[in-house]
Each structure stands twice: as structure tokens, then as C-alpha cells.
Design brief:
The protein is mostly beta strands. The chain contains 1 helix and 18 strands.
């Protein structure tokens, strides 16, 4: 498969991201079928490096072909999402999440992990850019540390990566492999041990396509070199 085209190159004072090579915990290619409802989607890495966490999809999640990623999963922005049966990430430690997305509307959540009341983690398409948020408590109250960066381009594929470095208490956001935002999260989220969800965070439903979601436990992605176009 050819690599998806990148968005226009950003300013040269940004930094390029380097994907971690080890401790990969889960990979959901989201290419399991050509047509119909995305009722199930395999975790292809979990079976090797961790406990496999296959996804279960709702009726609003369907398989889609004929695009850069073919197939991928398409979500209707109403009832469509996919979820695991248990947590994918330990939010008390370092972690990295990575996905390709093609949003057709603002406001939708790409990835989330549930807490007892509110999401412990959410990544969504905000009106002022991509937003990465971590709950400041145990996932029981709607209180978050957030960072925002990049531009949400509708009807265009975008590569998103977020990470948390528990040693330095730093949240990071990368858009199309470029480091665009960081911020502090001093108290690790302790109670968000619910399901991992693609396309919904309890309030925001994603409209568009998602492909190649990956998760790493115990590793925070970091910039490694100046970005030179």
C-alpha cells in the first residue's frame, strides 16, 4: 500500500516525531472487511505483545473502500463507534497513541478511554485545532488538562499522535508527524480503567473515516530532530 499523502509542510521551526519501536501493545488496522457493519475489528499486535483486545462496532460504524486506506472504518457521527471490552492503556504511566483520520465534521472524538463517569483520555477535532485531554482526577469528574494544536482539515487524511511522559509530566501532540503542542499533566489519571473507544468519548461522536490505530504502554513519543522540508 502506498503511503498516504502528507498535508502541506508546516513551519521549519517545528520538530518531527519519531515513533517508538518497542512496547507496542495494540494495533487495530481497521481493514477487516470490505462492506457492511464493522461489527468486529481485530487487534493484530495484542496477540503477540499483550492481551489481544478486539473491537466491537455499532451499527453506525461501517467498512469503507476506495480511499487512501482501503478498507477503513467509516463513522456516521451519530451512533457509530468501536469499543474494546477493557482498558487498552495504563493512564498512570507513559503511553502513546497513533491514528490516521479523515474527519468530515468538527467536534468528533477520535480516541478515548472511559473512566467511571467521564473519559479519562480524549482526542478530538476542536474548532481551534486538535485537542488532547487527560482527566485530572480518577475519571469521575469533568476536569481536564488539555493541549490544542494544528488545524483540523476536513475531508483530508491526517496523521495524529499523542503521548504522555509520566516522568516529566508532559502531554504532547503531533499532527502529520510535526510536534505542535505540549502541556503539563502533573497528577496521572488513576481511575480511567474502562473501555478503549474509537469514535466517541461519551459526548462527542466522530464523523468520517479512521484507520490504523496503534497504542503503546510504557513509552512516550518525543521529538528527535528539527523538521526540515
Amino acid at each position: 500500500m502506498n503511503s498516504p499523502p502528507k498535508s502541506p509542510r508546516p513551519a521549519t521551526n517545528r520538530k518531527r516525531a519519531c515513533a517508538p519501536k518497542n512496547r507496542q501493545s495494540h494495533t487495530w488496522p481497521l481493514d477487516d472487511a470490505q462492506t457492511g457493519t464493522a461489527a468486529t475489528a481485530a487487534d493484530t499486535t495484542g496477540a503477540v505483545n499483550a492481551t489481544a483486545l478486539p473491537l466491537t462496532g455499532t451499527s453506525g460504524a461501517t467498512w469503507h473502500t476506495g480511499d487512501v486506506f482501503s478498507p477503513d472504518v467509516q463513522l456516521d457521527g451519530k451512533t457509530g463507534y468501536l469499543t474494546t471490552s477493557s482498558k487498552a492503556l495504563d493512564l498512570t504511566g507513559s503511553f502513546t497513541l497513533d491514528a490516521w483520520v479523515n474527519p468530515t465534521a468538527l467536534g468528533g472524538a477520535v480516541l478515548a478511554q472511559n473512566g467511571s463517569a467521564d473519559a479519562g483520555l480524549t482526542l478530538y477535532a476542536g474548532s481551534n485545532g486538535w485537542v488532547f485531554a487527560l482527566n485530572t482526577g480518577a475519571g469521575t469528574a469533568n476536569s481536564y488538562d488539555t493541549i490544542t494544536g494544528g488545524t483540523v482539515q476536513l475531508s483530508a487524511w491526517t496523521h495524529l499522535t499523542v503521548s504522555y511522559d509520566t516522568g516529566n509530566h508532559v502531554m504532547s501532540l503531533y499532527v502529520d508527524d510535526v510536534y505542535v503542542a505540549n502541556g503539563n499533566h502533573t497528577a496521572p489519571t488513576t481511575g480511567a480503567t474502562g473501555d478503549f473507544v474509537i469514535g466517541y468519548d461519551g459526548t462527542r461522536s466522530f464523523t468520517g473515516q479512521i484507520a490504523q490505530v496503534q497504542a503503546w504502554n510504557g513509552t512516550a513519543l518525543s521529538p528527535v530532530q528539527p523538521y526540515t522540508p
